[in-house]
Design brief:
about 270 residues, 7 strands, seven-stranded parallel beta sheet, alpha/beta, binds nicotinamide-adenine-dinucleotide
């Protein structure tokens, strides 16, 4: 197996999480999927620090609840909810539970995601289905069940998570690329459909972020060529989840009032 561990090193220039935090989300209700780890966890913390009441959603109750407990201990407001976003019924029940606890959802951050390397000609078709179901269908289902509340309030914002792999072809990642490319079109379709009703929808395309998912993209499949994945790397190294969280929080905030249908890379220049 080729060693692709080089792009996992975090840039020494990445700031610590002592960035200035404004109460931009005060009183807002936000749902964050993937909140038990990585980018979702950092975004849940950041939105709570900006004053939002946060529904922390993840596959495992323990991780979702741990993030919510940490936010609560820090003086914020959050609940943890177990939800498999690839299941529409789970998404519907989860959104209903957040609304019961905090009121209508204003912001949805779709961050839960999975992926792995595989040779396309050998990949497990069940795994293909699973990756698309979590990354793409899950984002669509959560939007489906949050949008009625946004329409009722007359405002709302959705921030989806695509990837640099949604913008360029990443080898050994057909399912992941297809799902993340789909997220881009999902984002644009929602933005177009609801822009006359004060509901914005944007997507962030992270490059390498130092989180557990990166370990799913370390080992190349049998016969994999390390040279083919060089374009996934940047001399800036990996970013930190908190840097992504800052962009999620901006997109949720009123400062991004004029931003909808935007697909924003945050990737150390790998898609330049
Ligand atoms: N880390 C990177 O380098 C990178 C790069 C580009 C895009 N992304 C995207 O960022 C998002 C967040 O990833 P991360 O880097 O924080 O990784 P992570 O593994 O730390 O977090 C992903 C979270 O999603 C949750 N999850 C997985 N399947 C789920 C399901 N069926 N239902 C609910 N939750 C589920 C996991 O439990 C985990 O908490 C993903 O969509 C990922 O594709 C990450």
């Amino acid at each position: 197996m080729a060693d692709a561990s080089k792009w996992t090193s975090t840039s020494e220039h990445a700031p610590e999480s002592d960035l200035g935090v404004l109460p931009r989300a005060a009183g807002r209700v936000a749902v964050v999927t993937g909140a038990g780890s990585g980018i979702g966890q950092a975004t849940a913390r950041r939105l709570a620090a900006e004053g939002a009441k946060v529904g922390c959603v993840d596959l495992l109750a323990e991780t979702a609840e741990a993030t919510a407990a940490e936010i609560t201990e820090a003086g914020g407001t959050a609940i943890g909810l177990a939800c498999d976003v690839s299941k529409a019924a789970d998404c519907e029940a989860t959104v209903a539970a957040v609304v019961d606890a905090f009121g209508p959802v204003f912001a949805l951050c779709n961050i839960a995601g999975i992926g792995t390397f595989a040779n396309t000609h050998e990949m497990d078709t069940g795994q293909f289905d699973k990756i698309v179901a979590v990354n793409l269908n899950g984002s669509a289902y959560m939007a489906r069940f949050c949008l009625p509340h946004m329409l009722e309030q007359g405002e709302g914002v959705i921030v989806n998570t695509s990837s640099s792999a949604g913008l360029f072809g990443q080898p050994y990642s057909a399912a992941y690329c297809a799902s993340k490319g789909g997220v881009i079109q999902l984002t644009k379709a929602i933005a177009e459909e609801y822009k006359d009703r004060k509901i914005r929808c944007n997507a962030i395309c992270p490059g390498g972020v130092d989180t557990p998912i990166i370990h799913s993209f370390i080992e190349l499949p049998e016969g994999g060529d390390y040279k083919k994945i060089r374009k996934m790397m940047t001399p800036m190294g990996a970013s930190k989840p908190e840097e992504m969280a800052g962009l999620f929080a901006y997109m949720v905030s009123e400062e991004a009032r004029y931003m909808t249908g935007s697909i924003v890379p945050l990737d150390g220049g790998i898609t330049c």
